[in-house]
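The data layer described in this paper is built around a simple, fixed record for each protein. Because each token names a local backbone shape, the row as a whole describes the fold. We quote a single record here, exactly as it is kept in our systems:

***
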Amino acid sequence: MRCSGGRTLDPRQDWEEFKEILAEAGIDDRRLYDGSRHTAGTILNELGVDIVTIMEILRHTQISQTRRYVKGRSHLSKAAMGRMGDTFLPQAQAPTETRTETTDSRSDRARRLRRF
């Protein structure tokens, strides 16, 4: 496998670094890795990625294995995934317009100024 810089990546070295980071953080990794695979599979499914592509990303050899990692696409889970996406990547708010001009006429403005 190659990274964006063209160097060859060694999956074992990556795994060992991941284990070291977990140990330094005091995190037990027994279920973390498995949970992250379930999360990745479910997110990809919610994004509409086909099951064969998910299988390749999760590096499974059988589609039945991938199906165990991917949760269904209910309308509730889809709505929840949308809210999660909005939380992590909020859309930019359009600037609010402020009106500096009034709808009254030029003579109305002149009359107000004369009072002062």
About this structure: The mean pLDDT is 77. Residues 11-25 form the longest helix (15 residues).
